[in-house]
Amino acid sequence: MDVMKKVLDKLEKALLILMGILLAVMVLSIFYQVLLRYVFQSANVWSEELARYTTLWITMMGACIATRRNRHIRVGFLIEKVPYKARLVLLAVVYIAMFVYVIHLFQAGIIMTSNATRQRSPAMMINMGIMYSAIIVGASLFFIFLVEDFLKTVIIPAITVWRGGGEKETKS
Fold this sequence. Notes:
By secondary structure, this protein is mainly α. The protein has five helices and no strands. It is elongated. The protein starts with a helix and ends in a 10-residue tail after the last helix.
């Protein structure tokens, strides 16, 4: 588990660096667009397109990091009110639903990306498959971080309870 955590910590750090770079690109392209439009009364379509695509990638990676850091919105009061063993079962059901969602997201991303590879973006003329592949990458990372959280939150505590290690409370 320690090796997996170290690898995923490095992956998260790399994602944060990439998100920072993409955010800087997005801000600069929007600034460039505003400068052209309001100072020079000239429009530029590629900078708007670039900002849109960087936003897509930032959103997909940010959602993955939010999953890893347990920062998504959830209704915790219900889970906290049930007994510990029932809580583990309830959490397992929630994680299974999340796995089903991520698998469907991945499949939809594959379909959209394969369809989009025949298209070029209007302004920048880049392959749209690159943009739609953000869904595949995001779903894959979401799945990996979800497995990590599922092991920490449900599987390891359930094994502890099953072996008679007591009902150790976990953060949920």
